[in-house]
């Protein structure tokens, strides 16, 4: 059994009980990590309420608003971590966004603003958060982000998100090289398709999941729990020699040529 006792872990990207970040938070909690959770604030406070209720069973010791488009809010979140915990060991970056109009039709029709927004939220935010986390990771650390095969191969309709994920995966390498001397590791998990809030809003996701179930070596898709277990592993000392990598948690789909 993985043991993360005494480790302070910040988990971003929980929206509801289907979120991949929720699967990760549960597995980190099961490994006895001390959790902090962020939520995306909205006008009506709906996410705040939902995420607070959902995560109550994990008794997070920090619960913070964090919209990555708001620099002051990101700074305030990491300042609160410094004040409350003194040290950060684990950062889970599990968020992405592109406008719905960007995720269908021709990629070349992506607007400048839509392109920038996808990259800002889905790619830049990893560098942004790593910069804020670095000074708090005084005893080394582990940063894990979530990516998708659409950043390496052309997947219909993934469009600008594919460019964002390609940039994210390269960011993992540059960041790993930068923070490695401080014994901070940076890795990505490339998850197979899972039905979540973000993915369910995508046309054709069910056909895609059906295709994976036919083709993947394990003849199925993966679960949030399986991604959570891989994340817990990457955050543990069992992975102490692993950095700059993209680990596929996809029932083997990536190796197939059909
Ligand atoms: P999700 O909708 O549950 O999570 C996406 C999260 O991004 C939400 O919690 C949302 O609040 C957050 N977010 C959006 N804009 C934000 C902002 N400006 N500031 C802070 N947070 C913001 O969906 P998910 O599928 O769990 O996605 C989590 C990660 O997993 C994403 O990086 C996604 O690309 C990746 N991923 C998903 C799949 C899949 O099939 N679901 C597969 C591979 C990778
Ligand atoms: O990274 C993702 C989800 C990305 C995503 C999804 C949405 C839908 C709702 C980002 N932004 C938004 N914005 C919205 O308004 N995945 C890997 C899941 C996913 O998304 C796809 C997929 C798969 C798989 C989009 C097209 C094709 C396949």
Helices and strands, with pairings:
Layout: E1 8-11, H1 20-30, E2 34-39, H2 46-55, E3 62-65, H3 71-85, E4 90-93, H4 112-133, E5 141-147, H5 160-179, E6 184-191, H6 197-200, H7 205-215, H8 224-235, E7 246-249
Parallel strand pairs: 1-2, 1-4, 2-3, 4-5, 5-6, 6-7
The structure holds nicotinamide-adenine-dinucleotide and ligand 0WE.
Nicotinamide-adenine-dinucleotide is lined by residues 13-15, 19-21, 40, 66-69, 94-97, 121, 146-148, 191, 193-194, 196-199.
List keywords for this structure.
binds ligand 0WE, binds nicotinamide-adenine-dinucleotide, Rossmann fold, seven-stranded parallel β-sheet, 258 residues, 14% strand
Strand content of the residues, in percent? 5-15%
Ligand set: nicotinamide-adenine-dinucleotide, ligand 0WE
**Principal-axis shape:** globular
Overall structural class, as computed from helix and strand content, comes to alpha/beta
How far is the first residue's CA from the last residue's CA? Answer: 36 Å
Major sheet: size, sense and barrel closure? 7 strands, parallel
List the secondary-structure elements in sequence, H or E. Answer: EHEHEHEHEHEHHHE
Residue-averaged pLDDT: 97
Helix content: 40-55%
Radius of gyration: 17 Å
CATH architecture: 3-Layer(aba) Sandwich
């Amino acid at each position: 059994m993985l043991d993360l006792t005494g480790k302070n872990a910040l988990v971003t990207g929980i929206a509801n009980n289907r979120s991949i970040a929720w699967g990760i938070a549960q597995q980190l909690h099961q490994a006895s990590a001390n959790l902090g959770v962020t939520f995306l604030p909205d006008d009506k406070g709906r996410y705040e309420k939902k995420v607070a209720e959902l995560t109550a069973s994990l008794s997070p010791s920090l619960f913070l608003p964090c919209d990555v488009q708001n620099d002051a809010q990101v700074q305030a979140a990491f300042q609160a971590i410094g004040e409350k915990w003194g040290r950060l060991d684990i950062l889970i970056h599990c968020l992405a966004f592109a406008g719905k109009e960007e995720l269908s039709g021709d990629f070349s029709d992506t607007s400048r603003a839509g392109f920038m927004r996808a990259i800002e939220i889905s790619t830049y935010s990893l560098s942004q958060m790593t910069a804020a986390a670095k000074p708090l990771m005084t005893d080394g650390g582990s940063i894990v982000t979530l990516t998708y095969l659409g950043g390496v191969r052309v997947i219909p309709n993934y469009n600008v998100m594919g460019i964002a994920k390609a940039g994210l995966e390269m960011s993992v390498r540059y960041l790993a090289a930068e923070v490695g001397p401080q014994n901070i590791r940076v890795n990505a998990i490339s998850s197979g398709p899972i039905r979540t809030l973000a993915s369910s809003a995508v046309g054709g996701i069910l056909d895609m999941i059906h295709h994976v179930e036919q083709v993947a070596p394990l003849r199925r898709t993966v679960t949030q729990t399986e991604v959570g277990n891989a994340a817990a592993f990457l955050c543990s000392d069992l992975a102490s020699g692993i950095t700059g990598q993209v680990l596929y948690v996809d029932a083997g789909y990536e190796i197939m040529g059909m």
